[in-house]
Specification:
Radius of gyration: 15 Å
Bound molecules: coenzyme A
Strand order of the largest sheet: 1-2-3-4-5-6-8-7
Strand content: 25-35%
CATH topology: Aminopeptidase
Helix content: 25-40%
Shape: globular
Number of domains: 1
CATH architecture: 3-Layer(aba) Sandwich
């Protein structure tokens, strides 16, 4: 299990139990403005969705806690691909009060280190074209744009970003 520090923050890998995921689900709805008004039923739905998507797929769920023990950042993904060659970095975010302190960069680097250690060839993530912060950070961390996906449920495009973790 990964455990690290970043300044005053503690970074910790967590499992998929409801108790562990509940604060992450709460945070996810604070981080993404589009989720701010989700009902409790919807939030509860995300917990099940996360468990179903991550179980049995070599998931890595990284979280960061402030000194007062509140979860303030998370980054999660799972292994995929025909030969399980890809680590797909699915969701992540940082509470608005804790941004621009290098937390997401720290989570990103730990994730990539871990995925490389698991033998993944590359890491992939899908970033909305209207999310410059995420895009800039990903480019700084070595991703390149390698394709795009039209959204089915909203206007705009998701940019497929990839970063090699090993020499092919
Ligand atoms: C994008 C996000 C994850 C960045 O988290 P963060 O912890 O603030 O990022 P970091 O402090 O590690 O930033 C590292 C670098 O990325 C770049 N960056 C981060 N946010 C940026 C922004 N809003 N605009 C421009 N550049 C940005 C900067 O170069 C920054 O370095 P600097 O602060 O020294 O200038 C955070 O703003 C967030 O949670 N956004 C909403 C959720 C989201 O978009 N999630 C992705 C989809 S699931």
């Amino acid at each position: 299990m990964i455990e690290a520090t970043h300044g005053d923050y503690t970074i910790r890998e967590i499992g998929l139990t409801p108790d562990e995921l509940a604060p992450l689900v709460e945070l996810h709805h604070e981080v993404l403005p589009s989720r701010a008004y989700a009902t409790d039923e919807k939030k509860q739905g995300l917990l099940g969705e996360l468990q179903a998507a991550l179980a049995g797929r070599d998931p890595l769920v990284l979280t960061a806690f402030a000194p007062d023990a509140k979860m303030v950042a998370y980054k999660l993904g799972y292994r995929t691909g025909n030969r399980r060659e890809c680590f797909y970095s699915w969701l992540g975010g940082v509470h608005p009060f804790h941004r621009r302190k290098g937390l997401y960069r720290a989570l990103t680097r730990l994730q990539h280190e871990w995925a490389a250690g698991q033998g993944c060839l590359y890491v992939e993530t899908h970033t909305w074209g209207d999310n410059p912060g995420m895009m800039i950070l990903n480019l700084q961390e070595g991703f390149i744009a390698s394709g795009s996906l039209a959204a089915v449920d909203r206007p705009g495009t998701r940019i497929i970003m990839r970063k090699m973790l090993q020499n092919p």
